[in-house]
Design goal:
The chain contains 17 helices and three strands. By secondary structure, it is mostly helical. It has three domains: 4-79, 3-Layer(aba) Sandwich (Rossmann fold); 95-211, Serine Threonine Protein Phosphatase 5, Tetratricopeptide repeat, CATH 1.25.40.10; 230-356, Tetratricopeptide repeat domain (Serine Threonine Protein Phosphatase 5, Tetratricopeptide repeat), CATH 1.25.40.10. A hairpin with a 5-residue loop joins strand 2 (40-49) and strand 3. The longest helix is centred in the first third of the chain and has 26 residues, at 68-93.
Length: 356
């Protein structure tokens, strides 16, 4: 970060990112403008790679002049979140002949936050982070990201992954007790173990060092749902969406909002959010199942049957073959499970899912 006194010397000149980069010794240039019309103000911002002159990110913000502090908070939060994604992606894509531990960490971070759906989810991130640890066994960042990726990978290696993640997190926190990513990784581990209240505390530690951590807010909202605090879930998901409206994980956040509406029998609202979640990631089987239930509850039987068939096609196993098979999964504390029984399972029965 260059002092504003130096940056402002360019405010009345056409910006040449390469020239600014050379003169100030910076890697990236953040350029912007402000326009005012009556009581409205518009701020445009764009991030430029000073080496290649490539535009990495751009956004426009609109607000009222009567509440400039709120607009400032929105802008700084959105920029911080977006820049994190842009910088990680740019660094991960930068070619190198002899990659070192940092190169692998940056590539691993990018692969982690943009992991695709499917059986091999997080495989690339795990491979890259394992390489980083071979070169630097004491890297707290590599340990933390690898632990988080192992925790949420799932599949046949789940028990071994959880055990390895616990060891990595202990190492990371022993070296750096306040490291936010280590606490985030521990929250992910606790959440995977269905220790939701404990996970919330760890996410809050991570947020204390980064108030713009959208996924941490969203994951707290998810934990709140499973412990029965449904009224707290939607505001947390909405906060995450405001902070990172183009986030690779946004489909989850839409889905979790839809869950609350479904469980509270607001079927139309649930359908709207589940459709947004499905459109964000059409290959995710569970969102089709959620829609199948909601459509059936509304009496739209043909659409419900089509969505259930698609869920079964995408799942690759028998989880959507029967109510008995599906009910073995995680549906929260007894109070929340009862709500799923009364809504989600009831809708799937109407959509044609058998009991056994």
């Amino acid at each position: 970060m260059i002092s504003r006194n130096s940056a402002f010397t360019y405010k009345d000149k056409p910006v040449n990112a390469k020239q600014v980069g050379r003169e100030l010794g910076v890697r990236y240039v953040l350029e912007g403008s402000v326009q005012r019309s009556g009581q409205q103000v518009r701020v445009n911002a764009q991030l430029i790679d000073a080496e290649s002159d490539a535009h990495l990110w751009a956004e426009r913000f609109d607000g009222a002049t009567s509440d400039l502090l709120a607009l400032q908070s929105e802008i700084t939060s959105r920029i911080a979140t977006a820049l994190n994604l842009a910088l990680v992606g740019a660094e991960a894509a930068r070619p190198t002949e002899r990659p070192d531990a940092l190169d692998y960490v940056l590539r691993g971070r990018a692969a982690y936050w943009n992991a695709p759906r499917g059986l091999h989810r997080y495989a690339e991130a795990i491979d890259l982070l394992e390489r980083a640890l071979l070169l630097d066994p004491h890297s707290v960042e590599a340990q933390s990201y690898l632990a988080s990726a192992l925790t949420v990978r799932g599949g046949s290696t789940y028990a071994a992954d959880i055990e390895r993640a616990e060891g990595l997190i202990k190492q990371a926190l022993a070296t750096s007790p306040l490291d936010p990513m280590a606490h985030y990784a521990r929250a992910q581990l606790l959440r995977a173990q269905r220790r939701w209240s404990e996970a919330i505390l760890e996410y809050e530690v991570a947020i204390a060092s980064n108030r713009n951590w959208a996924t941490a807010y969203a994951n707290i909202g998810d934990c709140k749902l499973w412990i029965g605090s449904l009224e707290e879930t939607i505001p947390l998901e909405q906060q995450a969406i405001r902070l990172s409206p183009r986030d690779p994980n946004i489909g989850y956040w839409y889905e979790w909002i839809g869950n609350v509406h479904l469980l509270e029998s607001r079927t139309d609202e649930a359908i709207a959010w589940f459709e947004k979640a499905r459109n964000a990631d059409p290959e995710f089987d569970r969102r089709h199942a959620r829609l199948a239930s909601a459509y059936a509850l509304k009496g739209e039987n043909e659409r419900a049957a089509a969505e259930l068939a698609e869920a079964r096609r995408l799942a690759g196993d028998d989880r959507f073959s029967s109510i008995a098979r599906l009910s073995r999964g995680n549906f929260g504390v007894p109070k929340v499970r009862a709500l799923f029984e009364a809504t989600y399972f009831a809708g799937l029965r109407k959509a044609g899912m058998p009991e056994e």
